[in-house]
Amino acid sequence: xxxxxxxxxxxxxxxxxxxxxxxxxxxxxxxxxxxxxxxxxxxxxxxxxxxxxxxxxxxxxxxxxxxxxxxxxxxxxxxxxxxxxxxxxxxxxxxxxxxxxxxxxxxxxxxxxxxxxxxxxxxxxxxxxxxxxxxxxxxxxxxxxxxxxxxxxxxxxxxxxxxxxxxxxxxxxxxxxxxxxxxxxxxxxxxxxxxxxxxxxxxxxxxxxxxxxxxxxxxxxxxxxx
Length: 226
Hints:
This protein is α+β, with helices and mostly antiparallel strands. It has one domain. The protein contains 7 helices and 4 strands. The protein has helices at about 65-75, 100-115, 125-130, 135-155, 170-190, 195-215, 220, and strands at about 5-10, 15-25, 85-90, 95-100. A 4-stranded antiparallel sheet has the order 2-1-3-4, covered by helices on one side. A hairpin with a 5-residue loop joins β1 (about 5-10) and β2. The termini are far apart.
């Protein structure tokens, strides 16, 4: 298998449809971009995130902005509360939900943002291989913490400094929030309605909740381990 695919379908009550195929390199778990002519609002210097680690030149582009550009244009005139049937079709399974455009977009944007090559979002990339569409807050938190601790286990095996007590996870997710806010600023330059904007707001809220839960010693998950 050379690539991992997630085929997202948005089906609306008026019989209109939108389709998006996400392709990830199976070895690197990197998004395979199909956007050949990036718009100006995707330039790296536009609304650049404070935590950005990429080298800046006049011709460089934000990899996340480039990869979500098609989505932004497709939904720039769509309200976040619009009803739809959102489906995610992968090799492993088909997930389908009667929901709002906002929730469907949050799911698809989450996987693209995690796999676009942004260093600040690399903490999320391992979860992309086991993408869970339309995840709840509790599911997202469980997956995020589990993935973080598994990363520390492998770091320990390699003789690196590890963080089993998650002292540094807030720092990582602070950068995730900065990226979300930077992407939101870019989308505001293009979109008239709020579907894609609120999708980013949803993702940012999840990052904020995770940081708060870590501060509370993950008490909401502790009940799962009696």
